[in-house]
Structure formats: structure tokens, C-alpha cells
Design goal:
It is a multi-pass membrane protein. Its main location: membrane. This protein has 874 residues and is an alpha+beta fold. It folds into 4 domains: 211 residues, no CATH class; 190 residues, no CATH class; 228 residues, no CATH class; 163 residues, no CATH class. The chain is 60% helix and 13% strand. The strands form 3 sheets. The protein has a 9-stranded mixed sheet. Strands 13-14-19-16-18-17 form a 6-stranded mixed beta barrel. Helix 16 packs parallel to helix 26. The two termini are 53 Å apart.
């Protein structure tokens, strides 16, 4: 019995001793960081930067996805059903809404919306609704949510009801938007001065402008008309609702019935955009972890003798290993917490950019941002897992080293070279896999995997290539200090490799993203030159378009008048092996006059007899995004519901045209086919060309501006409703740049993170070399020669890295342009090099390297020679 008690007590005593040794080791490591704060700072900096970009993008993306599913009618609930204008009509008669209310269907809301001109040629999205009905629905939603959730939400009493319902020219904005566009409480729309009421952002107005429906109808010239009616009903009651509508005579000829999808379509549409942001944030996360790992390795290198001494003093290897892991956990928690705070601030800055991009490309409105504590725990878990996976092999090697051997420099270098060879072989294997996958990467997801494989392989190539590059320079060096310079540079590759891998990854991403943006901008400019052929483009109110068209036809200054018609329709794909069941797609159905279609449709491919059959048969043109997304090909037969009145809904795809910057599905039919289908006879927009001078030259830009002013006055339009060709190009390019602003910001932040990592690595390495440099100085090498030597060593390594970043960046750019962007958005882009942007990225790397080298050298020159030599013994 006594032996059993001793057996039970022994493990407890051993565990207590192990814990004591672990705690003592951890105290020693903390004391080490008190004397060397730069090492702890480098590790925390890398972790904080990594988590900052990860949390910043995650918070932004999560908030956007939440907005899709939580979006409601303004100041109301999420609609379950929409009654939209019947096929071929642009608006809905408000008598339908009165019939619903009279029949007791009070769970409905009338809405009118549209673009309205403001000051300086700007257009705003104005939305008007039955505010009494909206606020009543909002109140019922708040009552229901308060029963299920104790959290507070915006209340109906918080709104200035008296001002809203008084009939005064008043609009409502969120506080954040009002502070930007109407700080004085006034807004000019359609030459009318409106009072602005700002309400809390929690009401979810976003960037919309809301007005009472009577005011909105007046401003949009839609008296007696509605854009749609939102209806609210339980899913189980939808069949009953449809029966009630039929009983009221609200047939498809009066209103189209469409069930809502709770934001799923918008989630699917924007998936590629959010994947791109996530990919860039993960890239920055990896770059930040490189910095942290480099700091950990440098710290362990400086503590190598200390670890040996602890082992010699009787500290168990397991206790030492546990202390190192606890130290890493502590650093990860602190660094992740700092990164979490700064990441939320970054998200606050990124939110307006993302909101603008999503609104311009997809028509999505973002709700006010929220944050969750779970993001911090996720960041800590992810960072800790990555840090442990990277550092455990290093910890294991250090804690298993022989006590008598200590730090054997030769064996360390051999181990580094072996590791670099393995990394190079692994990179070649990954690139081989990517080459095999390339022919099969016909979908966005596979292409994204392909891009990820190449991104992982690129930095693994670098250490071995640096070693070969420096070795190739050895025969060119003169004997003496130059040969010593290159020989020592080879020894520096191992401690610098991680920082160089981070800068290579960031430079490659920078080169590829600048290639994408520069190529897209040039492609867009070229496409606009083809697409825009008229001098002025006019979009008058629908009620006046017939009158204005007649005036322009009789205007002697007009040399050509062009029209465009547009409605919403549905296209049905043919049943095939890829589509075993019938699939219906909402599309924008357009028609243009014969001259515009022939001369402005930038065709990607077409049937040989396209123009012979286009104006005489059921032949259509489809946009490139639509064709790529649904794998449509020339000669395919599809069905268009809008052609029902022709007796044949089937149509043949005769051509596929480029449609850069547009994410909508578009189909163009000929004007004879449009008329045969009895679609709306009035166009939605007009374009006009004007006579030039007597020599036949085009009208000058100055004369066109003056003509625009005169025409606006003659036609009774605002100048914001008349666009010149130059103005459209400028606005299109400006919208393009705003759309890609978030991508460029993240790209720049990634490069800055890598530059900070390079600075940190160079700073620590130069400080670690104080003793060798002091020995050279004591042997007669001047300080200027030492500075030049150290700078040349870093310059060689950075230049080789930058040279490698050019082809690797080009490879990533090719994949982004010809795979990712093409498959995700359906835009064919011609790849163009932007040498100026590449030069800027390389200059940042060189400037960072110079600063990181000169600062420690300056500090060293102020220290006594003996103090520098004493670094050898530390």
C-alpha cells in the first residue's frame, strides 16, 4: 500500500518540478526581451500587421454579405414578393396599389425610384415610398424583434414624422451621407432646393436618398406611376396571396409577380469580388507571418548560447520547449489583439470604398458595419496554428542540440543549404502541378487554386536562386574586400531569406495587380472609343422623350440621330448535358438603330453571315459576360419570353460582343424584331451627332460644350441629362478607378507590410553583425568602405529579388487577366505592361533597404569600438 502511494506521488512531484523549470525558463526569456525589445517588437509587428489586414478585410466582407441578407425596403421590412411593371413597360400604374389597399392587403408598400440630376452634373438615386405604410411596417417589425431579442433597434418615434408628412420638399439621408453632401441641410435636385433630414445610420439608408412618394413622383416626373410594389407575407401564404391578386384582376398584364430570394442572388453575384479581397488579405497575412517568423528566428539565433547554458544548468529539454511555446502563445495573443484593434479601424476606412464598388457594379447597398469578438478568437487561432507549424521544427532543433557542440556555424550553413534545395525542388514540383492543371482551369474556382499554387511556389524558389546568383558574381569580383563581400553575402542569404521571400511575394502581387489595373484601363479606353460614336447622349424623362426626339429630328444642326430601347426580359437556355433542366436567366433586352448596332458593337466573334440575317430573322447578340457565364456559343438556340408576340420565342446567337465594366446579362435584338414583338416603341435614350465646320471637320470640344448648354435650354432639360462623349469617357474611367480603389489600397498595404518586414530584417541583421564589422574596422577598413560594403551586400540581394519579381509578377498577372478576371467577370483584357508602376515598387524596396542599412550603421559609428567587439560574446 505504501509503494502505491509513493508511485502516485512521484509523478506529481515530477510534474511540479517540470512546471517550475518551465516557469523559470519563461522568466529568463521575458528578461531577455526586456534587454532586447527590438526582437519582441519585430515579432509583434509581424503578427499585428498580418492580423490587421486579415481582420480589416474580413470585417468588410462579412458586413457586405450581412447587408445582402438583412437588406430591407427603406425604413421597412424585407419584401417577400415584388409586383413589378408588366413585360415591356417601364412603370406600374399606381391604381394597382390602391386596389391592394382597398382590398385590405395592408402588408404592401408602394415604391418609386430612379436617377435624378443634381449639381455639377451628378446623378443621385432617389427613392420614394408610402412613408406611413413603411413606418407602420417598421413598427411591427420592431415589435416582433423585441419579443425575440432584447437588443434595441431604431424606433419609429426617433423619426421627425411631422416634417416628413407635412408635404414640404424634404428628403431623408443617413447622417454619414448628409455630412458629406449636405452639411448645410440643403440639397439641389432637378433645380429644386430640398431640406435634408439626417437620421441615424442604424436605420440602414446607406447611400440612398429617401422622400415621400408624392414628392419623388414629382421630382422623377412619374405622376400616377410606380416602380414596384413590395409585399410582405409568410412563405407558406404565397400561393394564397397569388390567388388574391388574381381575384383582384391583378394579372401579368397589369403587374409581374416575382418572389424574392433573401439576398442569395446578390451573394452569388458578388462571390468573386469577395474572394479576390479575401485572397489579397490572406496574401498580406502570409507576408506578415514571414515577418513574425523572421523575428522569432532572429531572437532564437541571439539566444542560442543562452539555450545551451540553460540546458547545461539542468533545465529539461521538455520544459525548455514548453517555455518557448508559451512565449510564442503570449506573443501571438498580444500581437493579434493589437492587430484586431487596428483591423477594425482599417475596416472603417475600407468600408466606403467597398460600398462604392458594390453599388456601382452590382447595385448593392451596405448597412452600417458591426464587429464581433469571435473574429479576435479566430485570428488568434489561425495565427497561432500558423506560427506553431512554422516554429516547432526550429524549436525542436534548438532544444535537441548537443550541449558540448553549441553553435556549429558550418553545420548550420549545411542545414540551411539542404533546406533551400528542398524548397527549390518543392517549388519546381508545385509549378509542374500548376502546368498540368492549366489546360483544365476552365472555371473560376480551379483557376483560383492554380493561382494559389503558383503564389506558394514563387517564394520557395528564391533562397536557392539567390545563392546561385551571388555565386555567379564571385568570378567577377576583385581579390580582397570585394571577394569577402560576396562570400559573406552568401552567408547572409539564410537569415535574410524569409524577409526576401516576403518582399518577393509582395512585389510579385504588386506587379501583377498593376498589370491587371493598367491593362483594364487601357482596354476600357479602347472599347469606349468604339462604343461611343455620337457627340451628345441624352436621357430625358420618359414622358418627354417622344417630343424631344421630334425636336432633334427637325434640328438643322443634327447630322445623325440614334436611339436605344431597353426592357427587362427572361432568357431560357437550351436543355443539354451541361443543363439537364431548363434554366431561366433575367437579362436586359436592348435594341439599337441599325447604324449604332453595326458600328458600335465591339464583336468578339460572330457568324459569317451575321449582318445578312440579323435584320431579317430571329438572330441576337449576347454580351461576353453572359456568354462566358452560361457557356453560350455561336449558333446556339435560346428562348426569349419578350418575343412571344412574334409567334416564335426561339432565337439564334449570331454574335458575342465585348461589354467591359458591365456585370449585367445583356442581349441585343434588331429594331425590326423589336417592333414585330410589339415592345415599347419609345426609346429610353437618344444620341446625336452634329455638323462640323465647312471643311467637314468634327465639331470642336469647346463648340460642343456651348451646344450642350444651348440644347439643354431649348429642350427644357438640365445639363446633367445631356452627356458629351468626352464627359462619358471621363466619368467611366473615374468610376473604373473608384471601383478598383479597394484593390489598389490592399495591394499597396501588402507592399508596405513587406517593406516593413525587410526593414526589420535588415535592421536586426546589421545589428547582429556589429562585431564582425568592428573587426574589419580594427584591421584598417574605413567606415565609408564598411558602409559601402554593407549597402552593396543588401543591394545585391534586393536587386536579385526584384529581378525575379518581374517574371513571376508577369505570370501572376497573366493568370489574373486571362483566367481569374475573364472567368469571374466575363471581361477579355489585353495584357499591357506598366513599367512606371513596376519602377515605383522596386524603388520602395531599394529605399527601404537603404534606410534599414544606414540607420544601424549610423548607430554603430557612435559606439566605441570595444563595445562593438563585445557583441561577439553576447
Amino acid at each position: 500500500m505504501k509503494n502505491k502511494q509513493l508511485t502516485k506521488a512521484a509523478p506529481t512531484k515530477l510534474e511540479s518540478r517540470s512546471l517550475t523549470l518551465t516557469w523559470l525558463s519563461l522568466k529568463v526569456f521575458i528578461a531577455h526581451y526586456r534587454h532586447a525589445p527590438l526582437q519582441a517588437g519585430a515579432i509583434l509587428l509581424g503578427i499585428a500587421l498580418a492580423v490587421t489586414l486579415l481582420i480589416g478585410v474580413k470585417a468588410t466582407n462579412d458586413n457586405a454579405v450581412r447587408s445582402y441578407s438583412d437588406a430591407t425596403e427603406l425604413l421597412s421590412q424585407r419584401a417577400d414578393v415584388l409586383l413589378t411593371p408588366p413585360l415591356g413597360e417601364n412603370s406600374l400604374n399606381e391604381s394597382v396599389y390602391f386596389a391592394l389597399r382597398t382590398a385590405g392587403l395592408s402588408q404592401s408598400l408602394a415604391v418609386v425610384n430612379g436617377k435624378i440630376s443634381g449639381k455639377n452634373g451628378l446623378f443621385w438615386q432617389l427613392e420614394g415610398s408610402d412613408l406611413i405604410a413603411a413606418l407602420t411596417l417598421q413598427q411591427s417589425r420592431n415589435s416582433a424583434s423585441s419579443e425575440t431579442s432584447p437588443t434595441s433597434s431604431p424606433q419609429i418615434n426617433d423619426l421627425p414624422l411631422a416634417e416628413l408628412l407635412s408635404g414640404a420638399p424634404t428628403v431623408i439621408m443617413s447622417q454619414s451621407l448628409a455630412a458629406k453632401v449636405a452639411p448645410d441641410g440643403k440639397l439641389i435636385l432637378e433645380n429644386s432646393s430640398l431640406d435634408v433630414i439626417s437620421i441615424d445610420d442604424s436605420f440602414g439608408l446607406g447611400s440612398a436618398i429617401l422622400a415621400d412618394i408624392s414628392l419623388a413622383q414629382q421630382l422623377l416626373n412619374m405622376q400616377g406611376q410606380l416602380s414596384y410594389i413590395a409585399m410582405f407575407s409568410e412563405r407558406a401564404d404565397l400561393p394564397q396571396l397569388k390567388s388574391q391578386l388574381d381575384a383582384l384582376g391583378i394579372t401579368p398584364q397589369k403587374a409581374s409577380f416575382s418572389q424574392q430570394d433573401q439576398g442569395q442572388a446578390l451573394v452569388a453575384l458578388t462571390r468573386s469580388f469577395h474572394l479576390n479581397l479575401n485572397a489579397m488579405s490572406m496574401l498580406a497575412f502570409v507576408v506578415g507571418l514571414f515577418i513574425a517568423y523572421n523575428g522569432v528566428r532572429y531572437s532564437l539565433m541571439k539566444r542560442q548560447k543562452l539555450l545551451v547554458q540553460l540546458l547545461q544548468q539542468g533545465i529539461e529539454r521538455r520544459a525548455l520547449m514548453t517555455a518557448l511555446m508559451l512565449e510564442l502563445v503570449l506573443l501571438v495573443v498580444i500581437g493579434s489583439s493589437l492587430g484586431f484593434i487596428s483591423g477594425l479601424q482599417l475596416s472603417h476606412w475600407l468600408q466606403p470604398m467597398v460600398a462604392m464598388t458594390l453599388e456601382q457594379m452590382y447595385g448593392a447597398h451596405l448597412l452600417p458595419g458591426i464587429w464581433q469578438w469571435t473574429w479576435l478568437f479566430e485570428a488568434i487561432a489561425l495565427t497561432l496554428a500558423a506560427a506553431l507549424a512554422a516554429c516547432l521544427p526550429l524549436y525542436r532543433d534548438l532544444t535537441r542540440q548537443a550541449l558540448a557542440q553549441g553553435a556549429n556555424r558550418y553545420q548550420q550553413m549545411q542545414a540551411h543549404r539542404k533546406t533551400h534545395s528542398i524548397q527549390f525542388a518543392s517549388a519546381c514540383g508545385l509549378l509542374g502541378i500548376a502546368a498540368l492543371l492549366f489546360p483544365f482551369s476552365q472555371s473560376y474556382n480551379i483557376s483560383l487554386v492554380l493561382l494559389g499554387i503558383v503564389t506558394i511556389a514563387i517564394p520557395l524558389l528564391l533562397p536557392q536562386l539567390l545563392h546561385w546568383g551571388v555565386s555567379a558574381l564571385m568570378p567577377l569580383a576583385r581579390p580582397g574586400l570585394w571577394q569577402y563581400l560576396l562570400a559573406e553575402t552568401r552567408e547572409l542569404i539564410a537569415p535574410l531569406s524569409l524577409a526576401m521571400m516576403a518582399i518577393l511575394l509582395a512585389l510579385s502581387a504588386n506587379v501583377s495587380m498593376n498589370t491587371l489595373v493598367g491593362s483594364f484601363e487601357q482596354t476600357l479606353r479602347t472599347w469606349l472609343e468604339t462604343r461611343l460614336h455620337a457627340d451628345l447622349y441624352i436621357r430625358p424623362p420618359s414622358q418627354r422623350i417622344d417630343t424631344i426626339q421630334t425636336q432633334l429630328m427637325h434640328d438643322s444642326r443634327v447630322s445623325g440621330l440614334y436611339q436605344q430601347w431597353q426592357i427587362e426580359a427572361e432568357l431560357s437556355l437550351p436543355v443539354s448535358t451541361e443543363n439537364p433542366s431548363k434554366q431561366t436567366i433575367p437579362v436586359s433586352l436592348l435594341s439599337r438603330d441599325g447604324y449604332s448596332v453595326r458600328h458600335t458593337s465591339a464583336l468578339k466573334e460572330s457568324l459569317p453571315t451575321l449582318w445578312q440575317s440579323y435584320f431579317n430573322a430571329h438572330v441576337i447578340l449576347v454580351s461576353e459576360p453572359l456568354a462566358l457565364k452560361y457557356q453560350l456559343k455561336l449558333g446556339d438556340s435560346v428562348s426569349l419570353d419578350a418575343l412571344a408576340k412574334t409567334g416564335n420565342c426561339q432565337a439564334i446567337i449570331g454574335g458575342i460582343y465585348y461589354d467591359h465594366g458591365n456585370t449585367r446579362n445583356e442581349v441585343i435584338i434588331s429594331q425590326p424584331l423589336w417592333q414585330q414583338a410589339q415592345l415599347p416603341p419609345l426609346p429610353i435614350s437618344l444620341a446625336a451627332s452634329f455638323h462640323g465646320d465647312k471643311q467637314g471637320r468634327k465639331i470642336t470640344e469647346t463648340a460642343l460644350d456651348q451646344l450642350q448648354v444651348e440644347l439643354a435650354a431649348e429642350l427644357g432639360l438640365s445639363q446633367a441629362q445631356i452627356y458629351s462623349q468626352t464627359k462619358i469617357k471621363i466619368q467611366a474611367i473615374a468610376m473604373f478607378k473608384r471601383t478598383f480603389s479597394i484593390t489598389l489600397v490592399l495591394n499597396s498595404l501588402t507592399l508596405i507590410v513587406a517593406a516593413i518586414g525587410l526593414f526589420s530584417a535588415c535592421l536586426m541583421l546589421t545589428q547582429a553583425r556589429q562585431a564582425p564589422l568592428a573587426r574589419l574596422y580594427s584591421l584598417g577598413v574605413s567606415r565609408n568602405a564598411l558602409r559601402g560594403m554593407v549597402f552593396m551586400q543588401m543591394l545585391i540581394v534586393v536587386l536579385i529579388t526584384c529581378l525575379l519579381a518581374m517574371p513571376t509578377g508577369a505570370l501572376l498577372g497573366y493568370l489574373l487577366i486571362n483566367k481569374i478576371t475573364l472567368q469571374a467577370f466575363g471581361w477579355t483584357i489585353k495584357m499591357i505592361w506598366d513599367w512606371q508602376a513596376y519602377g515605383h515598387a522596386i524603388l520602395i524596396a531599394l529605399a527601404t533597404c537603404t534606410l534599414a542599412v544606414l540607420l544601424p550603421l549610423y548607430w554603430q559609428t557612435r559606439k566605441p569600438l570595444v563595445a562593438s567587439l563585445q557583441q561577439e560574446t553576447l
